[in-house]
Design brief:
CATH class of the largest domain: Alpha Beta
CATH architecture of the largest domain: 3-Layer(aba) Sandwich
Shape: globular
Structural class: alpha/beta
CATH topology of the largest domain: Rossmann fold
Low-confidence stretches: 365-370, 484-502
Helix content: 25-40%
CATH superfamily of the largest domain: P-loop containing nucleotide triphosphate hydrolases
Length: about 500
């Protein structure tokens, strides 16, 4: 066997690797050695696999990253730094990327998957695996994590003795506060906007463990608590594998929010691209109270199809767009998604006239299916039609025109907190990707990421309702309905007409 030496440099790293729970996650700053620890853990578990009747130790792992560029430039690079082809066997660079390691009685197959390709998501859901490593888990939705837990423990087969250990390992930099990781680890409570059924999925199972590494540096503060500078944290991990000046050089020229996440290992958000809707203001456009549903006012639903379908629900009341809720799914076909739509409509909007608009491309037949998404929706009893245009510029204008507008002294666009993915997109997740390291050059189209699907759905809603159409055809947008001024979501009986109602106050 080729010589292989590794020693975890840090108590948290050691505890993480000694743990044999079904799911283990480690969160730390950049340079803390967590990715290398996961690489070694894959190999270590392969060595611990009991031989089959032929005397061979067989394992099969999948290593997952959210996008192909990050998979190739970061994850695969780290893996090959430790398991170079010259020593461990040829790496296959055709998709899916695969490394077959055969040494003595060891046979380890490692499959690398990026989840920005629908075919890779399908591949993951069909694999029979020993274990899975999720690299940078903050970029991966909880539904994918759940899917991963169903694919491990299936190789080798029980006829060959089964896996000696199986499970999921994950590493990440600090995610946002409402991400599944800090909720399941117990760092933050379940947000109020998350439905009870989803909240139950965020309770940490007994065989799951989360580990948090120390920060890379300590803050130097003045008497008022303002951060003046940073100094080395003697408790930081992976010291022996980095320059003494690594973190000192790293923090120079960085924003405090960047340093908080990547160096201090604190929960938070980093805006890395240019927001599509720079005019969005949380204090103005996010409702302080639940957005009420107006009786007698049509409900508009926008849908984006594909393997990550999404839907947005909204009403136009007194000249204002009020966005009520969202549905976001992963790896779900249109038949199952149609059922989710039916449930949401029946639960909250059964008394309303419903209009559904979607991606015009959804009216074309798939090569393998005679039905289109629209025909499937109509077959499920949902009145759905294509949006009048798929022009990105027109779609963006339909939304941005209301972000810049007031109606009766109030914002003409208001969104309920029941739409967390849509909100995160507005706050910077839905963005133009930087195309030049130096300078401020960005793509001219929004980046396709986890926030683009829900925002496409919102745009189809607005276009379908008539917003933006006048820009190309002179058509008038959908009529704004006036809800009763005495309507108050917090009271069953209407207030007297002389009093100001909720619609007027919101």
């Amino acid at each position: 066997m080729t010589n292989f030496k590794y020693k975890p440099d840090g108590e948290v790293l050691k505890s993480f690797m000694k743990d044999s729970n079904f799911f283990r996650g480690i969160r730390g700053p950049v340079g803390s050695g967590k990715s290398v620890a996961c690489c070694v853990e894959v190999f270590r578990r392969a060595l611990q696999q009991k031989p089959n009747k032929d005397g061979i130790r067989r394992s099969r792992w999948a290593i997952i990253r959210n996008t192909n560029p990050q998979l190739r430039t970061t994850t695969i690079k780290t893996w090959l730094d430790w398991f170079p082809e010259d020593d461990w066997g040829r790496f296959h660079w055709s998709v899916p990327y695969t490394h077959h390691i055969k040494k003595a009685d060891l046979e380890l197959e490692v499959i690398f998957l990026a989840l920005d390709r629908p075919e890779d998501v399908k591949k993951l859901l069909s694999l029979e695996l020993t274990g899975i490593w999720i690299n940078e888990a903050r970029e991966i939705p909880k539904s994918i994590i759940d899917a991963c837990t169903m694919r491990v423990g299936r190789f080798p087969s029980m006829r060959e003795g089964g896996p000696s250990w199986s499970g999921v390992i994950a590493d990440t930099n600090a995610p946002e506060e409402d991400h599944w990781w800090p909720i399941m680890s117990g760092e933050v409570p379940v947000p109020d906007h998350i439905p009870i059924e989803q909240a139950r999925m965020l309770v940490k199972p007994d065989n799951w463990n989360f580990y948090t590494q120390p920060s890379g540096m300590n803050e130097i503060k003045d008497d008022q608590g303002n951060v003046l500078d940073y100094e080395a944290n003697k408790k930081a991990e992976n010291h022996s594998n980095m320059l003494k000046t690594y973190y000192t050089n790293l923090v120079r020229g960085k924003t405090k929010s960047w340093i908080d996440v990547y160096v201090m290992n604190r929960l938070g958000a980093i805006q890395e691209g240019k927001p599509v809707y720079g005019m969005f203001a949380a204090d103005m456009h996010i409702a302080k109270e639940p957005v009420p549903i107006a009786d007698g006012v049509p409900l508009y639903i926008g849908i984006d199809f594909g393997l990550t379908p999404a839907a947005v629900f909204g009403q136009k009341v007194r000249g204002r767009w009020l966005i009520q809720s969202e549905i976001v799914a992963i790896d779900m076909g249109i038949v199952r998604f149609a059922e989710l739509l039916r449930q949401e409509i029946a639960t909250r909007f059964a008394h309303l006239d419903v209009h559904i608009y979607g991606d015009p491309a959804g009216d074309f037949r798939a090569q393998t299916d005679e039905d289109t998404p629209f025909r499937i929706l109509r077959g499920a009893g949902l009145r759905a039609t294509p949006a009048p245009s798929n022009s990105v510029d027109l779609r963006l204008e339909a939304v941005s025109s209301y972000l810049n507008k007031m109606a009766d002294g109030k914002p003409a666009f208001m969104i309920d907190r029941r739409c967390p993915t849509l909100i995160k997109g507005f706050e910077g997740g839905y963005s133009y990707k930087r195309i030049q390291v130096s300078g401020e050059r960005y793509d001219d189209k929004p980046d396709k990421n986890m926030y683009s699907h829900i925002h496409d759905a919102l745009q189809y809603l607005m276009l379908g309702a008539g917003e933006g159409r006048q820009l190309i055809s002179g058509q008038k947008p959908a009529v704004a309905f006036n809800a009763k001024v005495d309507f108050d979501v917090f009271r069953k009986k209407p207030k007297g007409r002389q009093r100001q109602g909720l619609w007027a106050r919101m």
